[in-house]
Predict the 3D structure of the following.
Amino acid sequence: MTVAGGQPARTRATAPVPHVEGLDELLRSMADDEFVIGFSDSEWTGIAPLLEEDIAMSSLAQDELGHAQALYGLLAEVTGAADADTLAYDREPADYRHARLLDHGRGDWAMTIARRYLYETSDAVRLAALAQASWRPLAELVGKLVREERYHLMHVGLWLERLATTGGEPRDRLLAALGMLGPDSGTVFTPLPGEAALLEAGILARPMVELERDWRVGVAARFEGLRLPGLPPTQDPARGRTDHGAAFVWLHGEFTMVRRSDPAATW
Amino acid sequence: MASKASPRASEGSPAAPSLEAWEVFRQEKDGDPMRHGGSVMAPDADLAMHYARELFGRRQESVRLWIVRRADIVDLHDPDLLQPPLDRSFKKPGGYVMRDKLAAARAAAGQAKPKARSR
């Protein structure tokens, strides 16, 4: 059963992996994004502002790790890697391809909300451009991710509004966080190596630069409503997913610590 | 625990918004009654809904939630109305207790109690 033959493949196992340049880069960037933000936000477990929010943020973080696992699973099919864990834990920091937006460390609550808002809205635009992907396993996974991300967008949108409309410290901290993230905020849309092939093959519907433009229009409207300053253009856009700094090297040391303690163990 | 603050008390104010208690009712599957699941603390209805979802629905254990501000519940907790002191057993729907009379009649007639039908 083949996708090309017009017969819909019903299961992942029966859909052959298309040989498209850039497919591995696309999956790696998406999986690394979800993995890094999931891990960063899981650092709130036990210390969030109130118990209910602690559970909510931890649950969101777990969702992202689950999404990363599914995306690493597809990446393993494409690259022939052993499994999702190998991809998540057995690479050097320089081999991760998450957006620089996610390289700022956990920060305070306003930083966490600002980063998550910028990431979730970017991710929503990216997922929409993959919903009709010609590789059915990817399109099916994206359909599921979109349904879960809906709640993430609702939750972080609510918090953005609370911080922005509560004068004094909440709004001041939000403004400071947006100021720090601003130059990196568009890096989810860093053009991918092999992007032309992805467009050609009908996997990615539109180029990243167009997606970024749409995303900026949406965020600008929301920010205007909340009287928040506009976002600056991306700094050093060509290296938006490489050259991760010291904050990520530290985070990498944290999330690989247990794995490295006994690489041969069966967990 | 449940404060009576107006839900708008925190708007535009730097003061910390006050938390209120919200009672959460959940339905496990279509057609089931709504049963009380527990409560969450939240500053407004939107966050109460999110927190209820996290505490009572994130593992797909509910198909529907009702989230009710505890202060909006009409609370009746009055022993004069609910536990009147005189005997009210004649108002109970159980009617007359036949068990002992039946057992005596069976014993008199030498019959065993019929077994529960197996199918």
Remarks:
- Chain A has a mean pLDDT of 92.
